[in-house]
Amino acid sequence: MTAPIPGSALSAVRSLRRLIPYFGRYRAGLAWGVLTVLATVGVSLAGPQVIRFAIDDLTAAVTGRKLVLYAAVILAIALVEGILRFLMRRILIGISRDIEFDLRNDLFEKLLTLPRTFSDAHPTGDIMNRCSSDVNAVRMLLGPGVMYSINTAAMFTLALFLMIRINPLLTGLVLLPLPVATFVVYFFSRKIHDYYRSVQEYFSDVSVFLQETFSGIRLLRAYGSLDPRQTRFGEMMEQYVVMNRRLIATWGLFYPAMGLLGGLGGVGILYFGGSLVIAGRISLGSFVAFSIYLAMLAWPMMSAGWVLNLIQRGAASMERLNLIFDAAGVAPAAGPMTPSTGALDLEFRNLTFSYPGAASPVLKAVTVAIPAGSMVGIVGKVGAGKSTLAAVLARVYDPPPGTVMVGGRDVSAIPPGELRRLVAVVPQDPFLFSESIADNIRMGGEDADPESHAAMAGLGVDMESFPDRLATLVGERGITLSGGQKQRVTIARALARRAPIILFDDALSSVDVETEAAIIRNIQSLPGRHTLIVISHRISSIRDADLILAMMDGEIVEAGTHTDLIGRNGLYASLFRKEEIEAELATL
Amino acid sequence: MQLNGGSLEDEIKGRIYDHRLMKRLIPFLRPYRGPLGIALLLILAGAAFELAFPYVTKIAIDTYISKGIDSGLLRLSMVLIGILVLQLIAGFLETWLLQMSGQRIMRDMRNQLFDHLLHLETRYFDRNPVGKTMTRLTSDVDALNELFTSGLISIAGDLCTLLGIIVMLLYLNWQLALVTFTVVPLIFIATEIFRRKVRVSYRLIRAAVSNMNGFLQEYLTGMPVVQLFSQERRAFDKFRAINRQHLDAFQQTIFYYSVFYPMIELVAALAAALILLYGGFQVIGGVLTMGEMVAFLQYSRRFFHPIADMSEKFNIFQSAMAAAERIFTVLDVERENRGPATASLPPPGAASIEFKNVSFSYNSEKPILQDVSFRVGPGERVAIVGATGAGKSTIINLLLRMYRPQSGRILLDGIDIDSYPEGELRRRIGLVSQDIFLFSDTIRANVSLDNPEIGEERVMDGCRGAFIHDFVAEELPGGFGHKLAERGADLSQGQRQLLSFARALAYGHRVLVLDEATSSVDVQTERLIQRGLETLLEGRTALVIAHRLSTIESADRIIVLHKGRIREEGTEAELLERQGLYYRFHILQAAGVA
User: Residue A12: is its pLDDT beyond 80?
Assistant: First the structure.
């Protein structure tokens, strides 16, 4: 069998197969839901029958007692129907929300396992969209979609049966417009959806225009080109009105057209049904009941068209969700698992690495051995490959097999979970979650002692200035930390990891020189021997390192101690001089 | 980026109706009072047509069907079909007029807002993030449109229908009408309870949705951290809890909706029962005809929609008032002073720049520039050198009148820049910033910035001068009509740079301010840029914020700015000899790592 073309109707409907297990989980509820739909339809169709008898009795002769009875029956039916409707909505729409809940959980759980390469290829906004509007479209299919499908089918079958029993010919005549109505709704709502989308797309162009205008306003002002920009915006707004025109026209025709179709059925009943009453073929009561049935059928028939669209859209969205569900997760461990033993020496062996899709490598034949317990400093200009070196060590990106070794084992053979207990990373971007500072530190390890780790990371004094010390929330609802404070919290978080290898990816840039030195001293005084890798723009952070690597264009160009490298008078030495002059300038 | 919890702006707050705001909104409606008025009339007509249907049914039953006369049925049916067609036309026209007016009102508002925003001081854009400014122009205007099209007018329609039904019922049989009306308070009570409950749970929903979005945004961005610290389990548990909160909020509204709609149906059934009971006795007593009773049954069903409908409109009013408040706040921000409208100025001659004792600070506390004086003579090229934060870009901002100095004067061609009308100032002085800004637009538009004075010829010449003409003409798929990706991402850094030179060359300013980029580029790009720069600065008066050694060396004179003051001034040889600040900068630059 050939694979269905993505985006085609067939592949879209196939994408729904993933939902079957979700339905399975709620089968009892679903069965009850279907039952209530059927019962609701049954009871609601009984109502007009009562009116029919009441009117027929009134036309002949009736006693007051009988009238009271009819009124009571109408109320009773309405009450039962109300309860059934309540149950129907509550059960079926409720289940659709439950499935949405499950689906979203599974989606997020899956996202947690996806590698960096996935998020590089799919911007956050796109994934957010899938998690919100696509899940929502699937939910619409599961809830209203399913509910109205069953409702329409049942209603149609039963009402048809009852109407035919009153008069088959009349039934045929007045039902004629209804399939047309289904089609009209299907057609119109699809058109409206399409037009709406193109209007939306145009508006997102307008948004880009606005965004660029306001971001580039200084340039536009400097060139005295605000007026043409304004003219352009005026034209865009004009075009937007024009684009809306067909949407409005379709929309404007839609409801009145539905009214017309429904009304024609009513006129049909009045004329043909009226004639039948006059001819004595049906009673006046049947006539009234008939028109009520027609009114009751109108909505489900219209909703049929709408439901068709819901199903289509839901299926298309499910396809978009499957992109996430079907994405390959982080490769677990390749090769046999061997527990780590002995010293955790690090080694890069002739490592050449390029990012997926990139033309040229970012790391070229990097070879270096780092003995356990040593401190290594890495310096170099932006784009030299320093951060990439850190990223492959922590397997944020997978290095080629056999190129990065930790404790004599290939990192590709170490499960990510285990590797990340061995290597604690302080990333370049001091990303904190909007939780308490203590909770952010605890992310490092459950057994963390936030107070002492914060102190070790040089947050001692700052801590006193936070309103609730370490319980203070970070972010919008809490306080805004300075760049340096953020960096120190991320350092405390890494220390809480209690990992034998600690890696600073340019994570001391906003911390002043004294604090920086203190932090490094603190780490080195920790019990046990930590391997410390410090990537930095500042020589002061690393001048005392056991080994300093200077990188340029993906290669290690110089390696040695501070004294060695100064003596060599190359890249490292020039970086060092620059820093000295800068320090001097600041004091002038 | 940290986002969590609802941002305050998402909260719908404020009053349902604010007279002061309404009064300011009216002028936007005024140009469309014609179509809006007709739309209103059509709504009235639509309501009348809607009411006609049950009445015609009544006539059919009473006059023909129950009396066994079938001659008039056809005519009545024709009348009904006529009414249906009229209803179709009225319904279409009403939507058309209303929505199109709405679109045009939005267009007008957006144009006015855009115009206003473009004329605000640069400071405004320093203080307000672009996203926020855009919201004023997009969703806030939409909220107001909602008010005009779905809110005001359709409430009028609902009211008319309601009133019509009441009149009709009273006309048919006032006793029965009064009996039927007894259920109305029930509807109001049910609706009001529903509205309150739903409002509370909508607030919960909004909070839940924005919590979920905030969480997703944060965790998708911070995913590397989650994974590096093996926090997947904990992140999942948190998400589950937020997802649960989301679910509960929705389940609650499902409950209210599940109760509300059947409740309305129940009240409708109660009305039907009452009509059947009381009306039935009247029919027996001969006071009421059969047809009248059927009409009553039909009218009473139509009664409940408008009432339920109207209560849904409150939200529209609330969010529209909040949006109006925000929009008018922007419109109330004072426009920038753009210099005199006209001025008699000598023709551009000397092409010189002069700062006389200029001091400036963004907020009065920390001075950025203190007593800065210098002059750039005609045809001279002066480089300003200094560390980050020394005040270099402030000099540009002041010279281009993006900000105004607290004291001192800035002269262009010997005339205070404050005396220049906006257009004239921009014609005399140009800016080339190497933090390049390109629009996702054609090459042509990026060079000319849509300025009608910059024709095709000047665009081409500019590109030729910047050595990028051949590349554009031969290698870009659409040539000069090629549309760039956002921020010009499909060009190399060097090409983007050259394009910005082409822009300046096309405009041909005699006085140029050049703001060099700090970021380093590869050797080949560097060479390209050097070549472009030379043609660009050839024969012009130029003030260069310099970062590259080569640019500094090619300047006639160097000004060293340090901590907001001019500390050294002279030719490169002089300054090097002095072994002061410049000497140190020079070493920094020479190290190639600045």
Answer: no
